């Protein structure tokens, strides 16, 4: 059977939560037993998100097969259990043009003029259909990035218009997500921007079947009547998406109550399978009734932007769910620590755990090292991720082994003790895009270690995104002084996990565990970290 295609566009404003809406719809359809995949079309010219600053675009999400993608792909993976997200699920204008231009240079177009229609639009459609080649699917949900009216998204809109014409209404559904703002002292909700957005969409030949309206209050019957009349959408297909108060994990439930999934199934004239929503109910129950609050300090360069460490924050929340606690984030700017030497910040904030996330470049490095030292000396649970692991190695080399000049060659290319350095194969690389160690790699875990206690197995795979590595020649010196190399690549050359012997929970990982955590399956290291932080908080009340 051919899968059904659901296309979701955005109107009026960006940042309305299109990605989470797609993910939540995917979650609901999966809870009804359907096989779902989700795809993001990003209208920018970059080939992928890998070269984009987190300040601009939030975190770069890494898939199992090593694609550097938009963070919405993270939501797709987190909200579902079975959806397989790979390179093919993330498409950009840059990729589409790159492919078409390469074909033109090869002479594949046999002398024809290469044009947006049909060549670019055909390539867009090919990438959507490609998803359905290797897997049995009931639904393909495609998110068109940007807002209707942007110049960049026009070819994507044209491609999905064509798909509707070719496959028919019974196989293609258009959802338009818009904003219904509340204006003035009387708090009156306004439908006009939505009417205009739908009008704009119609100029591209797309009549939405479903409207999802973000608003601060539930839409009244009267407003739904109005929207239905002016936008030519059935009243039952106008969904009210009210702002969520506590957690994004309430969004699937909100859409379930609004019957978004049922509306979609009715559109396709599918008889609905019963929904099994128990797992989500369990999660929501924990989120709404935590036993206590645990405070985690995150010491990172991009703390000012919430989305820059999106997966880390979500994984900490998942660790909280596993331990029935709420996690409060204390965001600490390492440059402040560095400038003021103000390590007392930690005493004031009373963090129950300290996390240093991944990062690039030397800004704030010394501040992060101070934070790590504080965690090590004061026996506070510490979790170092990628750069956070590398810095834990440097801190240990300087302050425990006594190599005061130890560093990463990323920050000091001529370091006397280059405890973190480039691998041979990375040495000659000058191009920035897609040249790091990317995607899933296996790791072997040593038994009788904390890492083993958390994972409960010896073979794992985790996703990577970095260039530098622990310099293996120094391994023995570190081990002699009480650092345990608890995870290593199968060939014994790449150090993947370190921990400390004389510390309740001090773990650094070269990989990014945050890309594999889900609320329904919290990652074991995040679960363990929060468990230990909870213990710390109980002992320090
Ligand atoms: N800058 C470090 C490296 O490239 C760490 C990268 C990261 O934290 N993702 O190895």
Can you tell me about this structure?
The protein is an alpha/beta fold. It has two domains: 278 residues, P-loop containing nucleotide triphosphate hydrolases (Rossmann fold, 3-Layer(aba) Sandwich), CATH 3.40.50.300; 248 residues, Rossmann fold, CATH 3.40.50. Helix content is 37%, strand content 22%. It is built from 19 helices and 23 strands. The strands form five sheets. It has a nine-stranded mixed β-sheet with strand order 13-12-14-15-23-22-21-18-19, with helices on both faces. The chain has a seven-stranded parallel β-sheet with strand order 5-2-6-1-7-10-11, sandwiched between helices. A three-stranded mixed β-sheet has the order 16-17-20, with helices on one face. α8 links the parallel β10 and β11. α1 crosses α9, α12 crosses α19 and α13 packs across α15. The longest helix is centred in the C-terminal third of the chain and has 16 residues. It is globular and about 75 Å long. Glutamine binds next to β19.
């Amino acid at each position: 059977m051919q899968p059904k295609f659901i296309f979701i566009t955005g109107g009026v404003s960006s940042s309305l939560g299109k990605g989470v809406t797609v993910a939540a719809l995917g979650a609901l359809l999966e809870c009804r037993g359907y096989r779902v995949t989700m795809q993001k079309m990003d209208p920018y010219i970059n080939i992928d998100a890998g070269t984009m600053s987190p300040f601009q675009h939030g975190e770069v999400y890494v898939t199992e097969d090593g694609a550097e993608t938009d963070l919405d792909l993270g939501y797709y993976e987190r909200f579902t259990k079975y959806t397989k997200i790979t390179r093919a699920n993330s498409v950009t204008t840059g990729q589409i043009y790159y492919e078409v231009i390469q074909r033109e240079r090869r002479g594949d177009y046999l002398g024809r003029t290469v044009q947006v229609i049909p060549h670019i639009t055909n390539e867009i459609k090919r990438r959507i259909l490609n998803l359905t080649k290797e897997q049995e699917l009931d639904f393909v949900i495609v998110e068109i990035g940007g807002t209707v009216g942007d110049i960049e998204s026009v070819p994507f809109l044209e491609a999905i218009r064509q798909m509707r014409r070719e496959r028919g209404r019974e196989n293609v559904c258009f959802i338009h997500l818009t904003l219904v703002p509340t204006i003035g002292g009387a708090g009156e909700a306004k439908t006009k921007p939505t009417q205009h957005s739908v009008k704009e969409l119609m100029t591209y030949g797309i009549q939405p079947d479903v409207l999802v309206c973000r608003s601060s209050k539930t839409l009244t019957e009267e407003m739904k009547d109005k929207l239905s009349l002016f936008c030519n959408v059935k009243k039952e297909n106008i969904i009210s998406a009210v702002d969520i108060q506590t957690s994004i994990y309430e969004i699937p439930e909100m859409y379930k109550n609004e019957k978004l999934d049922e509306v979609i199934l009715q559109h396709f004239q599918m008889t609905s399978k019963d929904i099994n929503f128990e797992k989500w109910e369990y999660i929501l129950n924990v989120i709404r009734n935590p036993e206590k609050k645990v405070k985690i300090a995150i010491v990172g360069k991009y703390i000012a932007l919430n989305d820059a460490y999106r997966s880390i924050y979500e994984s900490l929340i998942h660790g909280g769910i596993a331990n029935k606690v709420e996690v409060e984030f204390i965001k600490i700017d390492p440059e402040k620590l560095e400038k003021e030497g103000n390590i007392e910040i930690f005493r004031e904030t009373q963090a129950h755990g300290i996390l240093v996330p991944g990062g690039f470049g030397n800004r704030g490095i010394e501040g992060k090292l101070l934070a790590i030292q504080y965690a090590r000396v004061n026996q506070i649970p510490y979790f170092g991720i990628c750069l956070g692991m590398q810095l834990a190695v440097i801190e240990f080399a300087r302050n425990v082994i006594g190599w005061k000049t130890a560093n990463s060659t990323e920050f000091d290319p001529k370091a006397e003790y280059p405890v973190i350095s480039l691998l041979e194969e990375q040495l000659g690389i000058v191009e920035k895009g897609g040249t790091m160690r990317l995607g899933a790699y296996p790791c072997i875990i040593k038994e009788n270690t904390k890492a083993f206690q958390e994972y409960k197995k010896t073979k794992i795979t985790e996703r990577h995104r970095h260039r530098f590595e622990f310099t293996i020649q120094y391994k023995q010196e570190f081990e002699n002084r009480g650092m345990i190399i608890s995870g290593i690549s199968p060939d014994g050359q790449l150090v993947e996990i370190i921990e400390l012997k004389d510390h309740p929970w001090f773990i650094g990982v070269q990989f990014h565990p945050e890309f594999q955590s889900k609320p329904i399956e919290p990652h074991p290291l995040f679960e363990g970290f929060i468990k230990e932080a909870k213990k710390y908080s109980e002992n320090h009340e």
